[in-house]
Amino acid sequence: METHLADFMRHTTAGREAEEILRRCVHCGFCTATCPTYQLLGDELDGPRGRIYLIKQVLEGATPTEKTRLHLDRCLSCRSCETTCPSGVHYSRLLDIGREVVERMVPRTGRDAFMRGALKKLLPRATLFGTAMKLGQSVRLLLPGPLRAKVPPLSAAGPAPQRTHARRMIALAGCVQPSMYPNVNGAARRVLDRLGIQMVEASGAGCCGAVRLHLNEAEGARDDARRNIDVWWPLLEAGAEGLVMTASGCGSHVLEYAHLLQDDPDYAVKAARIVLATRDISEVITAEAEALGTLLLNCAPLAENEKPLAFQSPCSLQHGLKIRGTVELLLTAAGYRLTPVADSHLCCGSAGTYSVLQAEISKRLQANKLAALTAGAPAVIASANVGCMGHLQGGTAVPVRHWIELIDERLSS
Asked: Measured between alpha carbons, how far is residue 153 from residues 139, 141, 146 in Å?
């Protein structure tokens, strides 16, 4: 795609990157076939190709409007288009650049500005969010339906292993997972313990930064990355094998740290090492497949009515981390029978804060995803990301669990 950037972008790092991405696009339109919002709305400007044109126009000097911003806001950042693209267009990075520029040129006002400001202040602060979540959980049954659907019942992390191991991996607690689903990291800790790996959460680490980045606060996201690197670095230097991510959304974002901090002389090298050291929990356990198989041989078999399972592969897992089929193999090895899920590449509509800011579209995507997931009458739905779990559970009576919890329960049987 021929591109002529405006002066304000031409000699910047973001401008050079945007130009390279734009030149890769050949207008083929394959991306529209797998774009959830294009499929729902049927508007070219609500698909990747149309949004690329909008961003290109802005970067070349056209004045954006609130309508421009709306079309960019409607993007889920699911990255399904990147998986489909035959030219390797890194659409998500172009979108981040475009959104940041448009945000500066078309400031938000009113309810939209208030909601986004509140989300940026509440969600990344684990203590603040946790306090609000516990309050909501204490009066959950009294909450109105739409709000109650976003508040899971109170739960616990379960027993913590008491052994120590020579092998250690650093886990990110995250900002919302500890209060919404504490058993996810609890289960991961117990499974890794059985495999001879000690999982530690570094005090002082917090939100990965994805929330702020997706709300167009790039510098805030960089600050989150710097803080986490400062906390993780001494542990890596002391011999930790790496970082293990139990939320695929966080893992996908941490892999962007090197890109986010590429121009920071104090953090660029460290960020690159963090990226190389980061693994999704499914990758860590797959590397110990032989030991896991031995442990599973001693487990009680599942009852027939417990076996059917639908796996929802989060966009951050299959499109962001490029991990496909790995979790499914682990669940099959544990005795589950995976039911078919149509259009498994499509987003469930959670997408971080999307379910709050674009509620109507999100609900339609949720309904479509749940119809696909429950078509095979599963006993349980498994996922790999906290946001997807909460979003899906709010629309179905079928239990939605993190897959690592199911592996933990199998090993305890």
From this structure: 10, 9, 15
